[in-house]
Design brief:
By secondary structure, this protein is α/β, with parallel strands linked by helices. The protein is 18% helix and 35% strand. Strands 1-2-6-4-5-3 form a 6-stranded mixed beta sheet.
Length: 112
């Protein structure tokens, strides 16, 4: 599997007020999938699983860091099918591009 190099990424402010934290491998059970636009995210999952097995994960999922109830969690912004593929492969972790939204604005137009 292709993973991003374990190097430090500087924290920086993005256009929409999100703070980019960096890339990290996170536990799948900490990924929270909210209301999504896609009707059925499982269509074509087998092809995606085979692609990830052959080539590795080409693009990490995109999440927003959340904290609540003393447990770290990440709201999924992009990559629902990738999350489902990793679950079907029996993986417990997935590479993620992590943001922390300091201004309370939506980070993705598909999120409600």
């Amino acid at each position: 599997m292709v993973l991003h190099p374990a190097k430090s990424h500087p924290t920086r402010l993005t256009d929409n007020g999100a703070v980019f934290i960096g890339f990290k491998t996170i536990p799948l059970d900490c990924v929270v999938v909210g209301k999504r636009i896609r009707d059925d995210p499982t269509i074509g999952i087998d092809l995606l699983v085979n692609s990830i097995k052959a080539l590795g994960l080409l693009h990490p999922i995109v999440v927003r860091q959340q904290e609540g109830n003393g447990k770290q969690s990440y709201l999924l912004l992009a990559g629902e099918r990738r999350v489902e593929a990793f679950k079907r492969m029996g993986r417990s972790e997935i590479p993620a591009h992590i943001h922390f939204n300091s201004l309370g604005k939506p980070l993705h137009e598909g999120m409600q």
